[in-house]
Amino acid sequence: MSELQTPPVKTVLMSILIAGLVGETLFEAYAWLVSPQIFGFALQPSKLVMAITAKVFGIQLEYSTAFVLHFLIGSIGFGTFVYLVRLVLGLQGWMSGVLSGVALWFVAQGILAPFIGRSFMMDFGAYTQSSFIGHVGMALVMAYLLELFLTRPAVEMTP
User: Fold this and answer.
1) Residue 25 forms part of a structural domain
2) H or E segment at 144?
3) What is the pLDDT of residues 47-76, one digit of tens each?
4) In 10 A of CB 68, how many CB atoms?
5) Would you call 12 exposed, middle or buried from its count of C-beta atoms within 10 A (0-12, 13-18, 19+)?
6) Can you give the pTM of this predicted structure?
């Protein structure tokens, strides 16, 4: 997309929302269905949300509430992050997805996990490896969809 062709704000917001929802849904499917088959366990980022909320706010969240909160953060927050990496760094396609995914993985495993008392990058064990696949895969899907939605020609609706 050239610099002169900026999509309307509504198009950008809808693109972020759809890409985020699809990417986060696929992340959860990977976490619960694929990771157990490859690594022997499901990823449960909701437990990270529960631990952070307890540590920072002293609030004990139910697992289901933490799941919804992570899903919202993952779909809206991560979708926005992938878009901003694309916009600010001028990276398009898979590069914005890879960079975003690695950054999100590092935040989860290298910053947030130690914040709640886990080891740095959880000693680069199987959980960290599975988390890498999940985060980078999710961000790649989001970047692909953003590229698709934001670079396709506008479709005009005629009555």
Assistant:
1) yes
2) helix 126-151
3) 999 999 999 999 999 999 999 999 999 999
4) 14
5) middle
6) 0.88
